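Long-time lurker. I teach an intro course on protein structure, and each term I like to show students one example going from raw sequence to a predicted 3D structure in token notation. This year I'd like something fresh instead of my usual example. Would anyone be willing to generate the tokens for the chain below so I can use it in lecture? Attribution to the forum is fine with me.
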Amino acid sequence: MTQDEAVVVEKFSTRMEAQMAAGLLEAEGIYTLISADDAGGAYPPLQYLGVRLIVLPEDERRAREILADWRAAMALEPETGEEAEDEPPLNE
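-- Reply from a regular --
Happy to contribute to a lecture. Here you go:
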């Protein structure tokens, strides 16, 4: 993939989040690259500049759909670690 072919489909605030998204796309057969100005991960504080997830132009639409579905699914997950109301406690 050359720079001319690169399409940034999303920016993340951490390399870890970008790697999770890249793994999801690659599991769907989409080739990805991660670009960050953090010295190859040696200086994580520089990630505040943004970590970019890059795909080929022909995969852009599908990648955006997959990432949107992923974001929607993550929004349904309890963020505080609280149990869902319909589920019994784990210790019963």
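Some talking points for your students: The longest helix spans residues 60-76. The chain has one domain: 8-74.
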